[in-house]
Design a protein that fits this description.
By secondary structure, this protein is mostly helical. It has four helices and no strands. The chain folds into two domains: about 40 residues, no CATH class; about 80 residues, no CATH class. Helix 2 packs across helix 3 and helix 2 runs parallel beside helix 4. The chain starts with 17 loop residues before the first helix and ends with a helix.
Length: about 120
């Protein structure tokens, strides 16, 4: 994406990532906690990563239900993006812990490097 002027969050001003975050905000890929706070050094949750990837890929929203045992823990703001990513095969849950159980998504867990690579490869296929 070509760099473009976007919103400057107060907590990113002067950061090495300021222009990247500003551009991503201008394209609607990232959002802050509020108008002043992005949290550039915060760890990213699985639901946050999923939302950013869906927005970056500009995937059309998909409706449906999630069958994850912990689907109720997915924040309302992220639910549509998680559904879209799951239905497009970009993200997957963790296998069930018991035979016949349901998989889990673990939306508030921090995303691992392996999960990030898997999501990137899912977008690129």
């Amino acid at each position: 994406l070509p760099p473009t002027a976007g919103h400057i969050f107060a907590d990113t001003e002067g950061s090495w990532a300021e222009n990247y975050i500003s551009t991503a905000a201008a394209y609607g890929i990232v959002k802050g906690y509020d108008a002043a706070h992005f949290g550039p050094n915060d760890l990213i949750s699985r639901e946050q990563m999923t939302a950013m990837v869906v927005r970056a890929a500009r995937l059309a929203p998909v409706s449906g239900e999630l069958t994850f045992m912990d689907a109720a823990k997915i924040d309302a703001w992220a639910r549509g993006n998680v559904i879209t990513a799951v239905k497009n095969g970009i993200v997957h849950g963790y296998p069930p812990s018991t035979s016949g159980g349901y998989p889990t998504f673990r939306p508030l867990n921090h995303a691992t490097r392996a999960e990030a690579v898997t999501v990137i490869m899912g977008i690129l296929k």
